[in-house]
Amino acid sequence: MQPLLTIQGPEAALFWILAPLSVAAALGMLLVKKAVHSALLLAWVMITLAIFYIAQDAAFLGVVQVIVYTGAVMMLFLFILMLVGVDSSDSLTETITGLRPIAITAAVGLGGLLVSLLGRATLGREPIGLEIANTAGNVQGLSELLFSKYVFPFEVVSALLITAALGAMVLAHHQRTNPRPSQREQAINRFRSGSLAGAAGLPGPGVFARHNAVDVPALLPDGTPAPSSISATLKARGDVLDSGQFQLDNVDTTVVEEK
Amino acid sequence: MSLDNYLYLSAILFTIGAVGVVVRRNAIVVFMCIELMLNAANLSFVTFARMNGNLDGQVVAFFTMVVAACEVVVGLAIIVTIYRSRRSASVDDASLLRR
Q1: What is the reported pTM?
Q2: Do A94 and B84 touch (CB under 8 A)?
Q3: Helix count and strand count (H, E) for chain B
Q4: Which of A54, A95, A146, A167 has the fewest Cβ atoms nearer than 10 Å?
């Protein structure tokens, strides 16, 4: 078989289209503010890598990459993002002064080192390609190796998986240190606290106001807006409107509604 | 185009991941950057498998994926545990051992 020297045609086109896109997405991961956007960009990088795997005669790994990484791992990341929610750690301000220039310098150094190393290194012979190794099929070839030469690492990895699952269960298990207050105790606490304002529970957003959106505070019976009626999450995101503009005295009631 | 270009791409992605680990403060984003580094290493493994004409590199990449999955599970559980006690996912806030 003729040794595979260079890659031409479709694969080269695929590479030159997808490689810049994946590098751009990876850079975007560092630059975007919200963690959810980072997760989506990382999912894109992983999909491009899966395409590269399939282009490089690693069909099984390409499919596993899509199923395990973009399917399971990124979904797990998104679940945890939903669980943890937004907080101040999303901001891009540097907390350690001078960290960013040092990090970029070190990164340029590391990248230059790796690239120049790859540029100087030679394999000693021409790249062979996987046509011979994949004659029986990629999955068959992999399984043959996995269950003969690599059978012991395979078993060790299974032990690792079980240990990781157990470890995650132990870490995620939450033991209460104080008993959960019953409804009766909660009611008593509400009535015995300083004021009776919250005795009937907090007002919902938009109640008795001119809007019923969740970012609009409720109006109390005396016409003053109730900031406590708005979810703390909206406040943390900065998506909340100013309560004062909804005070009854300030609201412009002369607007004629459209028919 | 030679097969080396895949290796260059892998090196660049690895470097970007390394920068992310150092620069970002949100523990989840730091974790995603570690995943990016693992993926970049996997791309090199697959490329070397193709250069050498045997499937050993692909088997190693497969093992890397399994280990990465384990790492994600345990790491995210740790992040959730830290978040539960400290109400923050910032890597700067987890400094209990400093004192």
Answers
A1: 0.78
A2: no
A3: 3, 0
A4: A95
Instruction: Give the one of B5, B50, B69 whose C-beta lies nearest to A73's C-beta.
Output: B69
Place of tokens 């350690």: A96
Nearest residue in chain B measured CA to CA from A46: B39
pLDDT of chain B, 99 residues: tens digit per residue: 788 889 999 999 999 999 999 888 888 899 999 999 999 999 999 999 988 888 999 999 999 999 999 999 999 998 888 888 877 777 777 677 765
d(CA A26, CA A66): 17
Query: In which residue are the tokens 């959960």 written?
Result: A180
